[in-house]
Design goal:
The structure holds 2 protein chains of 2 kinds.
Chain A: E1 5-7, H1 8-18, E2 23-26, H2 33-41, E3 46-49, H3 53-67, E4 71-75, H4 79-93, E5 98-104, H5 120-124, E6 130-133, H6 140-152, E7 158-164, H7 165-169, E8 171-173, H8 193-205, E9 209-213, H9 215-219, H10 222-235, E10 239-241, E11 256-259, H11 266-274, E12 277-281, H12 287-290, E13 301-306, E14 320-323, H13 326-342, H14 350-361, H15 376-387, E15 392-396, H16 400-408, E16 417-418, H17 429-439, E17 444-450, H18 451-456, H19 460-466, E18 472-477, H20 482-491, H21 507-513, E19 517-521, H22 524-536, E20 541-546, H23 579-582
Parallel strand pairs in A: 2-3, 2-4, 4-5, 5-7, 6-7, 9-10, 9-12, 10-11, 12-13, 13-14, 15-16, 15-17, 17-18, 18-20, 19-20
Antiparallel strand pairs in A: 1-8
Chain B: E1 14-23, H1 28-39, E2 45-52, E3 57-66, H2 68-80, E4 84-89, H3 90-93, E5 96-107, H4 112-122, E6 126-131, E7 134-141, H5 143-154, E8 158-163, E9 167-170, H6 177-181
Antiparallel strand pairs in B: 1-3, 1-4, 2-3, 5-7, 5-8, 5-9, 6-7
Classes of the chains: A alpha/beta, B alpha+beta.
Bound molecules: thiamine diphosphate and magnesium ion (MG).
Chain lengths: ~575, ~180
């Protein structure tokens, strides 16, 4: 048994174990049968059988984002690999560490259009951080060890390893993970203390500073979130978070202005617009966040901390770019600020805060729950109130419900919010919740869903039932592709072309057909009771929350507009969207 | 640059010569080219060959065009590619040499044959092949010199051209040996 020789497939599984893999999300097929053989014999890795390869990747993403570990996927060649592509692109856009093993036809058949052959490395090249086709069995172990390093270091991302079937069957000598795999030479933290000291001074002496932080802080680990919160408190400055960053400063922190950007709060966006110093920590000036670039925070000095050098000066030129891991840079920055703090150089921010408090008075997230119809905003608010005492993990799909979740659910910790930000993938939330619940079997996991998005990966109900995952699927059912309908209303003369879903299933019966509970509520007076019932059911639930059908998501920065041109409701005088704005997504 | 609007203050685009050291493996070139096509950058010239058999490294000489912000972006994007080890901006580093080789076939008869040979001599082109109705010339030098030669040849008859793309190296005694040792 101590022999170091084994089949390639066994070596792959052993390498996964050595890299700390406990769970793999996969779907079998001809080209991966040797790997499934090896898994059959293995007791250390739990295989979760999903119902579609896209879902395997999203599940691995949910697992990775809620634990900080690398998520792992196994798919077959051809259609298995092509089905995984959306998930890989999603993981690339949102910097999620994922390893995807794909089967491939045997090496001697590559290039012959063999059955279920696809040029998987070619197809996945632009949607992975890196990928490998293993043509030489001697390189197999090294490639797998290296892939874990690549996926999880620097700016994390997906790595695909294409494994021809003959390689899986070849006898190979297992090579252990070397103590120190050489890091890719471009991932370095540039802890330039002089520069950081300058930035500390800039922050302390500014009159209208703001910190804007994103997913990079979450990716850097819980310590980065702690440090960021400490920095906010030290400076007593406002902080706003991107969609991906929610949770890295507790929602209850008095300096937190809510999310910024297209559906961010009025105070967050106006504070960005009017700041004199902006510190961006681990965010990437995404177009959802900046609005029109030539009017983005026009009179500010900008500092950007990012682990990926290419994020710095990509769309917004900054005055100081610091390349490095957020927690490393923040820990030095906090020290520097503390040092200077003792010398009492902190500028008073009373005027700045009184301005901000004026903006807050607009109550941009205010809404009126009148009548018996359930306002979707209220549904999320109630869900938050009812679940905040638990260790709750939220995943979402994409659309209005996603934005309402971001606006009205409060996140007090990082890694508890899983949403598809960069790619905006409908169908992300349900499989992602599978990964989250597998990683946190005792926690409350809720997929906040829209009825249209739910239909995109609802086959995963079967996975949920098989593994007895007590996931709560909270569907804000408005019968519309609400976000599309909203854009058609605001930008396309209310021509509601193909954005209504007729023939929706009866979600309660659908639940029952899988042997799980289905609940439905359409009256505000029963909303809280339904939420209680959902939480108290010991098992998976689909809750069909019938909400106001034509509610729009506000506040909103219209396409092509700037932070200070937000609209707060449909009644706001909306300027006609510019032609440039119309062309934007 | 930006999805929202061209920055009004954007400076002019300039041509830049980059020199990359990459792993000589299948897929590396595809990654580099995919980066340029996927992100909408220009490639004006590209040239790749293995330069270190033991370490299995190739050099890519690449001429691109853009504002300094775009060029910085291209360089940091290139560095994200795992098999790309070194990215040097020769235009920025200082004086450097840019050279290219062209093979030019000219189909020509009669009096123009003498003219062709005279021009070839002026340009110090080598004659690699001669028939009664054609020549093949080989010419190395700056791309602009090659352009001028090829234009003259075109006016003399039917031509066929094959060019290597620019190969570039910095002037002076500085080498990459130390950087290569760190790979
Ligand atoms: C895979 C995919 N296809 C299309 C879109 C475009 N899109 C964005 S939101 C949306 C509608 C979502 O509808 P629903 O899930 O019901 O959510 P709602 O907006 O109604 O809350 C669509 C079609 C997308 N984001 N992802
Ligand atoms: Mg909907």
């Amino acid at each position: 048994m101590t022999s170091n020789y084994m089949t390639g497939a066994e070596a792959v599984i052993k390498a996964l174990v050595d890299n700390g893999v406990e769970v793999i999300f996969g779907y079998p097929g001809g080209a991966v049968l040797p790997l499934y053989d090896a898994l059959f014999e293995n007791k250390k890795i739990k295989h979760i059988l999903v119902r579609h390869e896209q879902a395997a990747v999203h599940a691995a993403e949910g697992y990775a984002r809620s634990t900080g570990k690398v998520g792992c996927v196994l798919v077959t060649s051809g259609p298995g690999a092509t089905n995984a592509i959306t998930g890989l692109t999603d993981a690339l856009m949102d910097s999620v560490p994922v390893i995807c093993l794909s089967g491939q036809v045997p090496t001697h058949l590559i290039g012959t259009d063999a059955f279920q052959e696809a040029d998987t490395v070619g197809i996945s090249r632009p949607c992975t951080k890196h990928n490998y086709l293993v043509k030489n069995a001697d390189k197999l172990c090294e490639i797998i060890h290296k892939s874990f390093e690549i996926a999880s270091s620097g700016r994390p991302g997906p790595v695909l390893i294409d494994l021809p079937k003959d390689i899986q069957l070849t006898n190979v000598k297992y090579i252990n993970k070397t103590q120190k795999i050489k890091k890719h030479n471009h991932y370095y933290s540039n802890v330039d203390e002089d520069l950081i000291n300058k930035v500390a001074k800039l922050l302390l002496q500014s009159e209208r500073p703001i910190i804007y932080a994103g997913g990079g802080v979450v990716n850097s680990g819980p310590k980065a979130s702690k440090l960021l919160t400490e920095l906010v408190n030290l400076l007593d400055c406002p902080v706003t978070l991107t969609l991906m960053g929610l949770g890295c400063v507790p929602n209850t922190n008095k300096n937190f202005l809510g999310m910024l950007g297209m559906h961010g709060t009025y105070e967050a966006n106006l504070a960005m617009h009017n700041c004199d110093v902006m510190l961006n920590v681990g965010a990437r000036f995404d177009d959802r966040v900046t609005g029109r670039l030539n009017a983005f925070a026009p009179n500010s000095k900008k500092v950007h901390i990012d682990v990926d050098k290419s994020s710095i000066n990509k769309v917004v030129s900054v005055d100081y770019g610091i390349v490095g891991d957020c927690k490393e840079i923040l820990s030095v920055l906090v020290q520097e600020v503390k040092k200077l703090h003792n010398q009492k150089v902190l500028k008073s921010k009373t005027t700045w805060w009184s301005k901000i408090n004026k903006w807050k008075e607009k109550d941009s997230l205010g809404f009126k729950q009148i009548g018996n119809n359930i306002k979707p905003q209220q549904a999320i608010k109630s869900l938050y109130e009812k679940t905040k005492k638990f260790d709750t993990y939220i995943t979402t799909e994409v659309g209005q419900h996603q934005m309402w979740a971001a606006q009205y659910f409060g996140f007090s910790k990082p890694n508890h919010w899983m949403t598809s930000g960069g790619l905006g993938t409908m169908g992300y939330g349900l499989p992602s919740s599978v990964g989250v619940q597998i990683a946190h079997p005792k926690s409350l996991v809720i997929d906040i869903s829209g009825e249209a998005s739910f239909l995109m990966n609802m086959q995963e109900l079967s996975t949920i039932v098989q593994y007895k995952l007590p996931i709560k699927i909270f569907i804000l059912n408005n019968e519309w592709m609400g976000m599309v309908r909203q854009w058609q209303e605001l930008n396309h003369g209310s021509r509601y072309s193909e954005s209504y879903t007729s023939s929706l299933p009866d979600f309660v019966k659908l639940a029952e057909s899988f042997g799980i509970n289905g609940l439905r509520v359409d009256n505000i007076n029963n909303l809280e009771a339904t939420i209680d019932e959902m939480i108290n059911i010991n098992g998976p639930v689909i809750a069909d929350i019938r909400v106001e059908k034509e509610e729009n998501c506000f506040p909103m920065i219209p396409s092509g507009a700037a932070h200070n041109e937000m609209i707060l409701s449909s009644d706001d005088n909306v300027k006609d969207t510019s032609n440039e704005g119309l062309a934007l997504v | 640059m930006s999805v929202y609007q061209k920055n009004e203050l954007e400076e002019d685009e300039t041509s830049r010569t980059l020199s990359l050291i990459v792993d000589n493996q299948p897929g590396t070139l595809a990654r580099v080219i995919g980066l340029f096509s996927g992100r909408g950058y220009n490639i004006e010239s590209l040239n790749v060959t293995e330069i270190d058999k033991i370490r299995n490294l190739s050099r890519i000489s690449l001429v691109t065009r853009g504002t300094s912000m775009t060029i910085e972006q291209i360089k940091s994007q290139l560095l994200r590619i795992i098999p790309v080890h070194i990215v040097r901006d020769l235009t920025l580093e200082g004086p450097f040499i840019k050279s290219e080789l062209a093979l030019v076939k000219l189909v020509v008869k009669g009096a123009n044959r003498v003219e062709a040979l005279r021009i070839a001599e002026t340009f110090r082109a080598r004659t690699l092949d001669v028939t009664l109705s054609s020549f093949v010339f080989e010419l190395t030098g700056k791309p602009s010199k090659l352009d001028a030669f090829i234009n003259l040849m075109r006016s003399l008859g039917d031509t066929e051209v094959s060019r290597t793309g620019v190969s570039a190296i910095s002037r002076g005694d500085k080498t990459e040996t130390k950087l290569l040792d760190q790979i």
